[in-house]
Amino acid sequence: MAKRKSWVWDYAKREGDRAFCDLCDDKSNNEYSCVGGTTGSLIRHLQNFHGIKPSEDSIRKRSQLGSNHPYNDTQEVIRSGSSEHENNTTSINQDDDTNLVNNANTSSSRLENNEESKSRKRRRISKKCGSNSDRECNYEKTEQIHQALAILIAMNQLPLSFCSSPGFCQFMAVVEPNYKICRDQAMKKRLHALKSNVEDKIKNELQNVKSVVCTTDGWSSIAQNSYISLTAHIIDNQWSPKSFTLATQEMTERHTAVNLAENLTCIFENWEINGKVSTVITDNAKNIVNAVKLLNITIDNENMDVTCAAHSLQLAINVAIKQEIFSDIIKQCSAVVGHFKHSNVAKQSLFNKQEQLGLLHQSLVQCCKTRWNSVYLMLDRLLKNRSPVSNVLEDRTVTSFYIAQKLEITESQWIKIENLISLLKPLYVVTNLFCSENHSPASMVIPLLSKLLDCHFKHKAADDQYITDFKNTIIFEIKERFKFERNETSSVSVRQIASFLDPRYKDLEFEPNFMRDKIRMAVEDLLERFDEQEINLEQIPPVQSDLEYLYGNTITADDNLTNQLQIYIAEPPLRFDQNPYEWWKLRENKYSTLAVLAKQYLAIPATSVSSERCFSTAGNIVTSKRSCLLTKNVNMLTFLFQNKKLLV
User: Fold this and answer.
1) Alpha-carbon distance 456 to 453, whole Å?
2) pTM
3) 12-15 and 241-250: which strand pairing?
4) What is the rounded average pLDDT of the residues 462-481?
5) Would you say 366 and 377 are in contact if contact means Cβ atoms under 8 Å apart?
6) How far is CA 635 from CA 195, 204, 610, in A?
7) In what order do the strands lie in the sheet containing 18-21?
8) Which of 429, 442, 437, 141 is nearest to 307 (CA)?
9) Over the stretch 145-200, which tens digit does the pLDDT of each residue have?
10) Which residues pair with 307 in a beta bridge?
């Protein structure tokens, strides 16, 4: 009598020593081992994944075959060769279905023991979010969720383990019950693929411009890993300023000028911008300033080193507030704020007093030496909450007499605080303008600082001596750090050329007459250095007004460089609060050669804050709970978050 075919072959097909499940789609791993016709792997698969078990009819037919047809769900013919196994299989009771199944299980376990040495391919059970549900989550839908999850992790600075966390599984059990969880390693591969895609977009943007400006800074993580960041700034063909974070690269060597220059050059080469970088903005640290001087950059101006304007301004402020009268007040105010920061009772009492006085609930702000404008913010918040703070310190049920006496701020000190706030506020406003999220070009540095000194730091007869000293210090430090003192031998700086090319400041009213002529001559020399082959004459179609369209006339460029420059000088200046990039976009064809130079200099930012913001992002990624992140993963996650606009 012919052998009975196993019930599993109703749901699978066999090819040699391999079996394929007919119920699984082509995207799934539906291949199983069936050496010699074994069916154990298929039985486990059908029971676990498809919920299929042998029917009672099938078991009954097997039992009727008796000893001539021993039933075994795992293997049709057992080749163990043991006499004990043969006795067990021939003594099956035909009327006892339970003994039949138990005997099959015994044979299955023996088969596994006999073939432990053989490698068998088993399919791992994928973790699903929900229970058995009729709602289908096919391969395309699953991959779409995986990609969206990768973008979510990148944009929200989440850990990689989020994709397999219990909370996320519970969430997906409601949204998509049959969604298969993506493992951490698989998610990491998708993030790297996402990074490659963003890199291609950035490279395409960088290849379409003639000049790239970079900012750089250094940082050490909580794990004591040292990093160097680089951010690229460009103006595209539509005169739209753009910024891209290129790298947050680990630096294992000492931060010497030579090592820093080598690392920067390596990043330039990786991004294929080595011949396009015109300027690198840094802070005032000597090592990075000297490193930039070692770079082979392509700007034509001899005095190309540009430092962060906001950092230089904060150094000037720090010198001014070191006066004893100011340092004592700052120390006293810091102690008051610290008391409310460390006492829950005092903090809650402050909120109650604010509510009674009709003020907003506001916590006091503590100053920090490394945080710009923090002294101004602390004093301003404390002065606004003078009444509730004083009431809390005078309440003996909240503040003891000893602490109140120690933290008391006298009336004369309050007057000095108010005066110091009025001195620091214009500096605070200028710093914010320099560090704006929107592109703040270097062209605005000298005009704004000149306006600051002329309008807010002029001496008055009613000024007290400490106010006069503060103003004198600020004026001296700003003029010294930004090289305001100029003479006939002074060279033209990058900021001065950028100011001339900015239509808001092109009249150079903040410069002495001899310096205005010198700046214009320097720009004319730069224009003459441009080789005709280096200037892209294929401009965008000219923008026509309605009248120009009707008359068939357009604004044409003047090929004579001197004429272009003279016409540009004769143009009325743009209002200080207008957009200079829109101005140039409308006149690019009129000043074709001058526009190329303007695009190069107006791309230079006033500060290196973009690179410092990059490290703020890295600090949110490398936390105390994630301090063991690999540096390449830190670079990847920081890169994706900083360039998140390109993920959409």
Assistant:
1) 6
2) 0.75
3) unpaired
4) 94
5) no
6) 10, 20, 16
7) 12-15, 18-21, 31-33
8) 442
9) 999 999 999 999 999 889 989 999 999 989 888 888 888 889 999 999 999 999 99
10) 282
